[in-house]
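Recall that a protein's primary structure is simply its ordered list of amino acids. Everything else, from secondary elements to tertiary packing, is in principle encoded there. The following example makes that idea concrete.
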Amino acid sequence: MADDRRSRVGLAAALSLPATAAISLGFLLPVLWLARMSFNPVDSSGALGQGWTAHQYVELATGPFYAELTLASLKMAVSATFFALLVGYPIALFLHRLESRWKTVLVLLAICPLLVSGVVRAYGWIVILGDAGWINSMLRGIGLIDRPVRLVNNHVGVTIGLTESLLPYMTLSLLAGLGRLDRGLEEAARTLGASPLRTFLRVTLPLSLPAVVLGSTLCLMLAISAFVTPRLLGGGRVFLLATEIYEQALVTLNWPLAAALAVAMLALFSLVLVISGRLQRRVAE
């Protein structure tokens, strides 16, 4: 019995060895290298020095700019995730309940933005939201505004672009988690006299909360680490963690500070995952 168990454990270890090696080479080693670089001293020219220093982390912990940067990134990510959930939940619920041969086609249409480059989508939003874009032209045409409304190069444009980029991920996550939604319970509530709104609030929404937590966690992490959309739609005027890492690494050439910011972002991701795990266990009870 013990020999059979040892052989099964050995077989499992052998089968997992390629995946473990791939993860180690592709993720763990780069992260460890990044963490080591964050402790390197750097001179005014950007050259890396030898030895160890915690100056970067002291600057992150004490500098008010980085506290505001983190709060701005969280605020932007939460806003985009909320609006993606607000739009994606009805879509996912409709697709989950749909019984038609066109269901697969509609699901593909819901996720087809993923087939387009993020750069192309960002430039598309610039065309739509710009001062001479479709929205401002339409508002001027019907007489609602006299001058263009600023919808790009600010937080509004970045939030709109991030919401659109997160929407397919939110829809897919909700679809994957709505499997535990039992139509029989909804029909029972309606039979007992509950209104459609009460049925949704007391039956449908509680049963779909694990899917909501799953989709919100995924979109929140994607929004915090987003770079292309804030860079293009923000026009260099919206400062977030990802854009600051780019500036420190490629413009200021302060690689240790960029590495420290990246490590801080990973720590933020870990915190989000811990909170999400506790929420998942609570809503599943």
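The two ends are 37 Å apart (CA to CA). The chain has one domain: 64-284.
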